[in-house]
């Protein structure tokens, strides 16, 4: 069933597609508090899948850089002297220090390690070690910064720390290119507030479980419901991405932010009738989302630190032709988003707490939670061990490898 066919089936049946109970189960409780699984997730999901770091406009000048830490790895994104965007491990080849300690800035025409003063060129090659007479001759390429696999897609910069199963970002996102082309994502500019990050005390999958469905919007999010009404629809994850979309509901809106957002938002040039007054979300497996609005574009992501500790990170970008009216609309869309995020915080916490309850024996998913169902299926594709009870301590990786081999042999 295609996305359009599934959407039509859900809408025409009032939400029920006739899937049996067995097809509606979520992940087992142990998957939310297993330290062994979490370490396996860090390697198989977060190091081996693409991670969005920033937009090219965040580093416009030679020497501009952004750093980002993800599950123990450290990324450094910078603009070199010729204007090219480069990605490296933020790791001095001498003793492993961070070569740049700030989250963003400009390093002019060289990178100087703050530990011993080793100097690297903006292309990553080693310019000079401190007191070179105390060391053997060092090849500048061999002893340069270690490059990271990277790709710039529509202006957004992605990295991958280890080889993985996903195709290049352009291929991963190819089925959305026609829809996205009208937004001119490559021309976006930072909103001036930079990249934000927060720590939350939950398992990272709890955030995805709340974010991957709009079934809870009418009950939990008065602002979004006021903006969308019954127009909101989630499409399932397929080939590593998923889409959610909603036109604005008719009328002025009951709430202050929604009413004024609808009133102020201008007809943005270049957007077709389906997108001038609509919000679009694109989820990318395993852990981030683009929110694409007429007035702005956001991304947000999460990645684990340890059991019960997760970092959330994101940024907002404006259109290059933003005038006062569009800037006011962007403020209001951001206000709706901030209120929605605060409302989701408690839902995420309750989802996390549920896994520890003696009464928790799993979930039953509605047809309106196809985003959760398809996302869990994608996780089970990487970790078929999630289809059964928690493995004995120390056996999870071996058990999962055996299940993967068995599935491949079928």
| Alpha-beta classification | alpha+beta
Number of strands: 18
Stretches where pLDDT is under 50 for at least 5 consecutive residues are 1-15
Quote the CATH topology of the largest domain. Naphthalene 1,2-dioxygenase Alpha Subunit, Chain A, domain 1
Q: How large a portion of the residues is in β-strands, by DSSP E?
A: 15-25%
- Provide the gyration radius in Å: 23 Å
Helix content: 25-40%
Q: What is the CATH superfamily classification of the largest domain?
A: Naphthalene 1,2-dioxygenase Alpha Subunit, Chain A, domain 1
What is the number of helical segments per DSSP (H or I, 4+ residues)?
A: 11
Q: State the end-to-end distance.
A: 23 Å
Q: Which keywords apply here?
A:
2 domains, eight-stranded antiparallel sheet, 29% helix, Rieske Iron-sulfur Protein, four-stranded antiparallel sheet, alpha+beta, Naphthalene 1,2-dioxygenase Alpha Subunit, Chain A, domain 1, 410 residues
Task: Walk me through what this model shows.
The chain contains 11 helices and 18 strands. The protein has 410 residues and is of the alpha+beta class. It has 2 domains: 3-49 and 178-369, Alpha-Beta Complex (Naphthalene 1,2-dioxygenase Alpha Subunit, Chain A, domain 1); 51-153, Rieske Iron-sulfur Protein (3-layer Sandwich), CATH 2.102.10. Strands 11, 12, 13, 14, 15, 16, 17 and 18 form an 8-stranded antiparallel sheet that branches. The chain has a 4-stranded antiparallel sheet with strand order 4-3-2-5, with no helix packed on it. A 3-stranded antiparallel sheet has the order 1-10-9, with no helix packed on it. It starts with a helix and ends with a helix. The relative contact order is 0.15.
């Amino acid at each position: 069933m295609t996305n359009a066919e599934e959407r039509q089936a859900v809408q025409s049946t009032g939400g029920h597609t006739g899937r049996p109970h067995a097809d509606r189960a979520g992940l087992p409780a142990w998957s939310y508090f297993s330290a062994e699984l979490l370490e396996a997730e860090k390697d198989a999901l977060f190091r081996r899948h693409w991670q969005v770091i920033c937009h090219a406009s965040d580093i416009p000048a030679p020497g501009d850089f952004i750093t980002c830490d993800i599950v123990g790895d450290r990324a450094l994104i910078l603009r070199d002297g010729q204007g090219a965007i480069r990605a490296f491990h933020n790791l001095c080849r001498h003793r492993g220090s961070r070569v740049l300690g700030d989250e963003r800035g400009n390093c002019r025409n060289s990178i100087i390690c703050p530990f011993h003063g080793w100097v690297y060129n903006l292309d990553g090659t080693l310019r000079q070690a401190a007191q070179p007479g105390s060391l053997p001759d060092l090849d500048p390429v061999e002893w340069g910064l270690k490059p990271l696999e990277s790709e710039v897609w529509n202006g957004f910069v992605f990295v991958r720390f280890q080889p993985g199963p996903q195709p290049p970002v352009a291929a991963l996102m190819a089925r959305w290119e026609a829809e996205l082309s009208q937004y001119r994502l490559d021309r976006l500019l930072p909103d001036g507030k930079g990249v934000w990050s927060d720590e939350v005390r939950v398992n990272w999958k709890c955030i995805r479980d709340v974010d991957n469905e709009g079934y809870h919007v009418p009950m939990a999010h008065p602002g979004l419901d006021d903006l969308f009404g019954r127009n909101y629809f989630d499409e399932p994850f397929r080939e590593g991405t998923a889409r959610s979309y909603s036109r604005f509901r008719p009328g002025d809106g009951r709430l202050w932010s929604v009413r004024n957002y609808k009133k102020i938002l201008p007809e943005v040039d270049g957007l077709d009738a389906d997108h001038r007054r609509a919000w679009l979300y694109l989820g990318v497996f395993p852990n981030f989302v683009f929110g694409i609005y007429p007035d702005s574009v956001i991304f947000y992501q999460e990645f684990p630190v340890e059991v019960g500790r997760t970092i959330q990170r994101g940024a907002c970008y404006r259109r290059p032709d933003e005038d006062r009216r569009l800037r006011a609309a962007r403020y209001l869309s951001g206000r709706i988003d901030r209120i929605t995020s605060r409302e989701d915080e408690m839902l995420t916490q309750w989802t996390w707490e549920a896994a520890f309850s003696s009464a928790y024996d799993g979930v039953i998913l509605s047809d309106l939670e196809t985003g959760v169902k398809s996302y869990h299926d994608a996780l089970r594709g990487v970790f078929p061990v999630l289809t059964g009870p928690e493995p004995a301590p120390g056996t999870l990786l071996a058990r999962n490898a055996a299940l993967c081999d068995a599935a491949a042999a079928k």
